[in-house]
Amino acid sequence: MIQKILIANRGEIALRVLRAAKELGISTVAVHSTADADAMHVKLADESVCIGPPPARDSYLNIHQIVAACEITGADAIHPGYGFLSENSKFADILEAHDITFIGPKADHIRIMGDKIEAKRTAKRLGIPVVPGSEGGIYDDDEAKRVAADVGYPVLVKASSGGGGRGMKLARSEDELSNALATARTEAKAAFGDDAVYIEKYLGKPRHIEVQVVGDGMGKAIHLGERDCSLQRRHQKVWEEANSPALNSEDRNRIGEICSKAVADLNYSGAGTIEFLFEDGEFYFIEMNTRLQVEHPVTEAITGIDLVHEQIRVASGGGLSLTQDDVRFSGHAIECRINAEDPKTFVPSPGVISHFHTPGGLGVRVDSGVYSGYRIPPYYDSLIGKLIVHGRNRVECMMRLRRALDEFVVDGISSTLPLFRDLVGNPDIANGDYDIHWLEHYLRGEA
Ligand code: ADP
Q1: How confident is the model over 92-120, as a mean pLDDT?
Q2: What pLDDT was estimated at residue 165?
Q3: What per-residue confidence (pLDDT) applies to 428?
Q4: Is 313 one of the annotated active-site residues of the chain?
Q5: Ligand 1 within 6 A of CB of 203
Q6: Distances in Å between the alpha carbon of 326 and those of 257, 283, 303, 408?
Q7: Does residue 434 have a pLDDT over 90?
Q8: Do residues 273 and 282 lie in contact, with contact meaning Cβ atoms separated by under 8 Å?
Q9: Catalytic pick from 291, 313, 365, 394?
Q10: 240-287 pLDDT, tens per residue?
Q11: Ligand 1 centroid to 162 CA: how many Å?
């Protein structure tokens, strides 16, 4: 059994994990950089350790310091949250060597899913539908031309080590292909030190739909339905909802069953998300994230299942607390990511939050690590909180969201709250009628 968890993260997710650990009667250790000494997760943890100066590479990404903090405090497990070291297979290997439990999947699974070519090959082998394209990496232009002609233009050239949308190039015709290959390779080499690329059919108006899975590492797995994260800006999710307004229950069950079976066959342990593009009734795998996602609370809202509890149970060897038949979906949930950014230009807005008031009432959850008087340091991402609203159906959820957004006060800095107040009144959003390009069009005044 896990007795003490060190949380190798900061902000709202550190607090989220801390809450789950406390509920299970497990002691908590916060780690923090010198910039985060006043952070809420540090105040609420049983113990805390300063692991270095503000830059993440010297603190939250400093494996040596984090392992040392475990040894000093006697923590027997680490929860990595999301970002930072959460998908670093080397970190998982090192913890294993130190006999510290990593609350996440096995290092090999992180490694496979971190390499897009390998991930796609694995997905296909497990019966998950993938985007038509090259079988593996593309190493010469003639091969590229053959594949592209086969799948049909437009095509995307994607970097195997890609992330955050980098190393991705569109070719509308054969004339553009050589150029796209060369630029994608150069960009990928510069950003990731790996110039392996592959080709995929470009989908014009897809939605982003992802399936939440949890495996016990011993051949059992469940799915907790999907989330629709199509509202994105620069490939960053802004608003997420469950269920997806675009799926019917047949699509939902079909993709859920495919995913849980695949994860069971992999002997995958812990929480994971299988991401798809969805167009004209078909799902196309794009990647698997081997960690807890920012948007996991919408799934918790419609299932009543605490995903961090499940992660901790599985990592302790206790298996899952429920079977697929125990999973019940109820109502609709929406999450808005509130960032400390200008709502029009999205320029980060660090500084002191003079007043912070969160909404409450039935069906309203706020996950945030900030408080009135808190100074947002300029070193990390700009997420200051997540508003998650649940209703018995999408209409009730939207009504409640509008009300909750009205109550939310963030003074002293700019936040993206005004953007959500606009979105909640938009007819396309009210109808659930949007694809992955909708928000960018809207922000350019075209939607
Ligand atoms: P990354 O890891 O860089 O974020 P993904 O493969 O997850 O890369 O893709 C990021 C985004 O790029 C997707 O959410 C989607 O908006 C777009 N995208 C990826 N593959 C395709 C495709 N085959 N067709 C159209 N858009 C795509």
Answers
A1: 97
A2: 73
A3: 98
A4: no
A5: yes
A6: 15, 26, 10, 35
A7: yes
A8: no
A9: 291
A10: 999 999 999 999 999 999 999 999 999 999 999 999 999 999 999 999
A11: 10
In this structure, the chain runs to a length of 447
Nearest to 311 by CA among 78, 34, 135: 78
Stretch 181-191: mean pLDDT, rounded?
92
The C-alpha atoms of residue 227 and residue 295 are separated, in whole angstroms, by 8
Backbone angles phi, psi at 228, to 5 degrees: -100, 115
Query: What is the C-alpha end-to-end distance of the chain, expressed in Å?
Result: 53
Distance of CA 286 from the midpoint of ligand 1 (Å): 7
- Is the four-CA dihedral 288, 162, 111, 54 of positive or negative sign? negative
Contacts of 94 (CB under 8 A, 6+ apart): 63, 67
pLDDT digits (tens, 9 = 90+) for 411-430: 999 999 999 999 999 999 99
Identify residue 164 by its one-letter amino acid code: G
Query: Distance (Å, rounded) from C-alpha 179 to C-alpha 171?
Result: 8
CA-to-CA separations, 152 to 82, 171, 199, 279, in angstroms, rounded: 36, 11, 11, 16
Asked whether the bond before 393 is cis by omega within 30 degrees of 0, the reply is no
- Select from 283, 286, 436 the residue to mutate for testing ligand 1; criterion: most ligand atoms less than 8 Å from CB: 286
Residue 434: both structure tokens together: 């949007």
Regarding the beta carbon of 131 and ligand 1, being less than 6 Å apart is answered yes
Spatial contact of 119 and 276, defined as CB atoms under 8 Å apart: no
Which tens digits make up the pLDDT trace of 16-43?
999 999 999 999 999 999 999 999 999 9
Q: Where are the alpha helices (DSSP H) in 304-430?
A: 307-315, 394-407, 417-423, 427-430
Give dist(CA 252, CA 429) in Å, integer. Answer: 21
The answer to pTM > 0.85 is yes
Q: Which domains does the chain have, with CATH numbers?
A: 4-86 (3.40.50.20), 132-201 (3.30.1490.20), 207-443 (3.30.470.20)
What is the radius of gyration, based on Cα positions, of the chain?
22
Distance from the CA of 184 to the center of ligand 1, in angstroms?
14
| pLDDT (mean) for 172-196 | 93
Question: In the chain, pLDDT over 90 holds for what percent of residues?
Answer: 95
Beta carbons of 401 and 380 less than 8 angstroms apart: no
Q: What letter represents residue 410's amino acid?
A: V
